[in-house]
């Protein structure tokens, strides 16, 4: 038996339910349904199941919930056969339910009271293990994980380099040596220790709430682009945990990232080896400071060679991230539950 239509306003709905629609809405609905049922690379590989994949976001990951009604995956990102919703009354019709970890606190009472057979649940987090609380309570709960980790069932990085044949090298004019934008400064973090010791040997222009110099949203890139180098220091060090500090604040801004995070080899899985400087490349922070202060112009320009082949793509819209579930769906494992989510995430 095919499952009920995921469209809550379907004029042929469940028996005994009267639905009133205007002629215009009815025509629009039929047109959207036609688009959903058309073959596409973004659709599921199950020819017997012709309905769109219904993905229910139990709670939206960010405070601002955008409009997710309609065929947003197709309209915005070219992913067809994918229907997103935040309407919890569609739980029993949903193929996939998405649970952002930040919204799951304090515990199991935030989950649905029952789980329809065959439905897959996705655990979502962009935070590192150091900043993810209460993972031990979610054993045998989720079928798939969706994180910045490359070994996730659904991989959602903060950004990536995409091939660009028409790309050219563009280095913004520089007025200072090093900058750093920091909002949550804690002395116990390694990045705080590294900054404190590095600043003994060179001046760092520090911005953000932690330094009482907040930058407006449109001011960040113009500010960091004026620096020759940017401290892309992660708040914690974990495999694949490479955030907007690298992608947006540095590479997109047109400055050279000085990174503190996972080992260099891990960064090189994402960006060219000659596009960044790793703190671990040096025997001391004094040696790093000398390297930055004495670099000549020709050596500096070599760090931007990647711009001739690539451009930076940022992932900032949660709608785009969640739409990737539909793209990945045909290849995801079935009948699997993570027995120990905390052990997996900390591995």
Automatic annotation (TrEMBL):
<dbReference type="Pfam" id="PF00852">
    <property type="entry name" value="Glyco_transf_10"/>
</dbReference>
<comment type="pathway">
    <text>Protein modification; protein glycosylation.</text>
</comment>
<keyword id="KW-0808">Transferase</keyword>
<dbReference type="InterPro" id="IPR031481">
    <property type="entry name" value="Glyco_tran_10_N"/>
</dbReference>
<keyword id="KW-0333">Golgi apparatus</keyword>
<keyword id="KW-1133">Transmembrane helix</keyword>
<dbReference type="InterPro" id="IPR038577">
    <property type="entry name" value="GT10-like_C_sf"/>
</dbReference>
<dbReference type="Pfam" id="PF17039">
    <property type="entry name" value="Glyco_tran_10_N"/>
</dbReference>
<comment type="similarity">
    <text>Belongs to the glycosyltransferase 10 family.</text>
</comment>
<keyword id="KW-0325">Glycoprotein</keyword>
<keyword id="KW-0812">Transmembrane</keyword>
<protein>
    <recommendedName>
        <fullName>Fucosyltransferase</fullName>
        <ecNumber>2.4.1.-</ecNumber>
    </recommendedName>
</protein>
<keyword id="KW-0328">Glycosyltransferase</keyword>
<dbReference type="GO" id="GO:0032580">
    <property type="term" value="C:Golgi cisterna membrane"/>
</dbReference>
<feature type="domain" description="Fucosyltransferase N-terminal">
    <location>
        <begin position="52"/>
        <end position="159"/>
    </location>
</feature>
<dbReference type="InterPro" id="IPR001503">
    <property type="entry name" value="Glyco_trans_10"/>
</dbReference>
<dbReference type="InterPro" id="IPR055270">
    <property type="entry name" value="Glyco_tran_10_C"/>
</dbReference>
<keyword id="KW-0472">Membrane</keyword>
<feature type="domain" description="Fucosyltransferase C-terminal">
    <location>
        <begin position="172"/>
        <end position="344"/>
    </location>
</feature>
<dbReference type="GO" id="GO:0046920">
    <property type="term" value="F:alpha-(1-&gt;3)-fucosyltransferase activity"/>
</dbReference>
<keyword id="KW-0735">Signal-anchor</keyword>
């Amino acid at each position: 038996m095919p499952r009920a239509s995921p469209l809550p306003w379907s004029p042929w709905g469940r028996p005994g339910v009267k639905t009133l629609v205007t002629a215009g809405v009815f025509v629009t609905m039929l047109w959207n349904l036609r688009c959903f049922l058309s073959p596409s690379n973004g659709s599921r590989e199950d020819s017997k199941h012709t309905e769109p994949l219904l993905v229910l976001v139990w709670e939206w990951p960010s405070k601002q919930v955008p409009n997710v009604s309609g065929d947003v995956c197709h309209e915005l990102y070219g992913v067809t056969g994918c229907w997103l919703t935040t309407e919890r009354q569609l739980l029993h019709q949903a193929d996939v339910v998405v649970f952002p970890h930040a919204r799951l606190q304090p515990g199991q009472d935030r989950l649905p009271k029952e789980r329809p057979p065959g439905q897959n649940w996705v655990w979502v987090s962009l935070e590192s293990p150091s900043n993810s609380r209460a993972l031990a309570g979610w054993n045998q709960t989720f079928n798939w994980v969706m994180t910045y980790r490359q070994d996730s069932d659904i991989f959602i990085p903060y950004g990536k380099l995409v091939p660009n044949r028409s790309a050219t090298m563009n280095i913004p004019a520089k007025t200072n040596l090093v900058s750093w934008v920091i909002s949550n400064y804690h002395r116990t973090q390694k990045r705080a220790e590294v900054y404190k010791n590095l600043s003994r040997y060179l001046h760092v222009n520090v911005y953000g709430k932690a330094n009482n110099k907040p930058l407006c949203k449109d001011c960040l890139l113009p500010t960091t682009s004026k620096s020759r180098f940017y401290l892309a220091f992660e708040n914690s060090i974990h495999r694949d945990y490479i955030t907007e500090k690298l992608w947006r604040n540095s590479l997109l801004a047109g400055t050279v990232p000085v990174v503190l995070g996972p080992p260099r080899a891990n960064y090189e899985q994402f960006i060219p080896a000659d596009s960044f400087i790793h703190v671990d490349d040096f025997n001391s922070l004094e040696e790093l400071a000398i390297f930055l202060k004495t670099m000549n112009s020709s050596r500096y320009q070599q760090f931007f060679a990647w711009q001739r082949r690539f451009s930076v793509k940022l992932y900032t819209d949660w709608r785009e991230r969640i739409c990737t579930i539909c793209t990945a769906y045909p290849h995801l494992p079935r009948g699997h539950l993570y027995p120990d989510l905390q052990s997996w995430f900390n591995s």
